[in-house]
């Protein structure tokens, strides 16, 4: 997803598991879909109560789990990473999700 998820009404002390793999059906939070990919969710403890958070959904933020607007360049970045991936030859054989470039099979 090339934009943030707007999440409402989190309270200081809430614990969330931010999906790092991008496969979750309950974005931006982990639903266990990462199993077998090598990715693990990021445990995030909400540091302050706030009515709205912008949580990264592209998974390329440099300030997880917050959106830092990296998504604006994601399509170009993804293509460059996938074209130069050192695991490119293995994508079709054994990947559910490439841990190097995030390539996902087109089922
Ligand atoms: S489903 Fe993506 S990290 Fe768990």
Automatic annotation (TrEMBL):
Q: Which UniProt keywords apply?
A: 2Fe-2S, Iron, Iron-sulfur, Metal-binding
Record keywords: RNA-binding included? no
Record has Hydrolase as a keyword:
no
In its UniProt entry, the species of origin is given as Potamilus streckersoni
This protein's name: Iron-binding zinc finger CDGSH type domain-containing protein
Which co-factors does it depend on?
Answer: [2Fe-2S] cluster
Q: Where does the Iron-binding zinc finger CDGSH type domain lie?
A: 6-40, 41-77
Q: Which GO terms describe its cellular component?
A: mitochondrion
GO molecular-function annotation terms? Answer: 2 iron, 2 sulfur cluster binding; metal ion binding
Per its UniProt record, what InterPro entries does this chain match? Answer: CISD, FeS-contain_CDGSH-typ, MitoNEET_CISD
């Amino acid at each position: 997803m090339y934009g943030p998820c707007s999440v409402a009404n989190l309270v200081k002390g809430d614990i969330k598991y931010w999906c790092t793999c991008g496969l979750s059906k309950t974005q931006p939070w982990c639903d266990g879909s990462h199993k077998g990919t090598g990715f693990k969710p990021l445990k995030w403890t909400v540091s302050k109560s706030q009515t709205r958070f912008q949580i990264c959904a592209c998974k390329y933020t440099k300030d997880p789990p917050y959106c830092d607007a990296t998504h604006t360049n994601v399509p170009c970045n993804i293509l460059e990473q996938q074209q130069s991936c050192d695991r490119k030859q293995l994508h079709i054989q054994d990947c559910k999700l490439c841990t190097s470039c995030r390539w996902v099979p087109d089922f």
